Amino acid sequence: MQSSAQALSDNEIRPSRSAPGSSGWMTIRRIEIAKVGHYSSVFSCTEIFSALFYRVMHLRRCEPGWQQRDCYLMGKGHAAVELFPVLTDLDFFGSSLLDGYTRLGGPLGDHPGMTKVPGVDFSSGSIGHALSIGAGMALVAHMKEQDFRVFVMLGYGEMQGGQVWEAALFASHHRLDRLVAIVDRNGYQLDGKVDDVMGIELLKDKWQSFGWHVHEVDGHDIHALTELLRKAVVHALGHDLNIIACGLAVFGALQAAEELRQEGHSVGVIDMATIKPLDRQAVLQAAASAPRMMTVEEHNVLGGLGAAVADVLADEGAGVRLYRHGIHDENGLIAPLATLYPHYKLDGAGIAEVARVQLRRG
User: Fold this and answer.
1) What is the DSSP letter of 157?
2) Cβ atoms of 229 and 222 closer than 8 Å
3) With 80 as the cut, is the pLDDT of residue 155 above it?
4) What ranges in 56-198 are assigned the alpha helix state H?
């Protein structure tokens, strides 16, 4: 069985290692010039910045205002000294501003300001608020049927705040699968070791009890971070049918699965975060749990998610019936999403209707 995502070559990973701010000496230089900053908080998450901004997040160089780009929020806003050069490297603003870090009247403060710095999605610094804001963004994306993801980096000591757990419960209740929380579990907070100030372990068990899918990874291993953040989200595995969806179609797939479960069918849903690379392990896991599989995508089924899944099944000789649902080989229509989704049976009711046909085929 292959890994869940294609391994990164040294050539692929080199840009994120050499990006401005990703090498320690450049961060030290800026902090030394400004005489203000947090070394340890920055160095504990440097590779996370690199994996997110250079390998995982959907961004457009020079376009911080692109409405469909993924969002990034920092609970631990005091690590912004590492964020600013990454945004500069993406041409969100000029590098000439970097040496003005924390200077009077300049836009680059010790904490990021969304009204001053292009590409900053939340003015953080008051510990505990970022996950709530991120959950709100993810909810808006769901309501407006938008496809961007929201990544929130949280400090280890930040886990002591009650608002974090209220936001975690809110996100789980509303099934905000486009929201990703990353806890920088470095063992410390401002006043010392977290275990000495107010221990918060067993942290993984706590997040799982709030309904989150939880993974642990070495935060300094860019390869492992990238593969994990590209993994598919397995909402559930069914014994009758598994639906693999991507983008906005995930919302309809979840609605359809719930409707079919109420009718007595065992239906699972997998949110395939990326098609290239594809999470092969998730596809094979779904194939092993049910005799039927259905892909759902909001574009032509030729050369998309369904084709990628079919390639994996063929390569591995998996004996499962696959149906590719989406827009078939035809000229597309132009209309509001509220009209197009029902027309192509990509809303919850339409996906459930198509799935019932597959279930009857045996």
Assistant:
1) G
2) no
3) yes
4) 80-89, 130-143, 162-173, 194-198
- Taking only the tens place, the pLDDT of each residue in 228-245 is 888 888 888 999 999 999
Residue 356 phi, psi (nearest 5): -60, -35
* Strand 267-271 relative to strand 233-236, pairing: antiparallel
Tokens of 190: 């401002």
Nearest to 352 by CA among 247, 259, 277: 259
- Is the predicted pLDDT of residue 27 greater than 80, yes or no? no
Q: Which residues contact 27 (CB under 8 A, 6 or more apart)?
A: 21, 37, 39, 42, 43, 46, 81, 82
- Is the sign of the CA dihedral 204, 207, 213, 215 positive or negative? negative
Strands 267-271 and 321-327: unpaired
| Domains within the chain, CATH numbers bracketed | 10-229 (3.40.50.970), 233-360 (3.40.50.920)
Average pLDDT over residues 4-25: 43
Give the whole-angstrom CA distance, residue 317 versus residue 179: 34
| 274 contacts 262 by C-beta, under 8 angstroms | no
pLDDT tens for each residue of 340-361: 889 999 999 999 999 999 999 8
Asked if 150 contacts 178 with a C-beta cutoff of 8 angstroms, the reply is yes
The rounded distance, in Å, linking the Cα atoms of 225 and 247 is 21
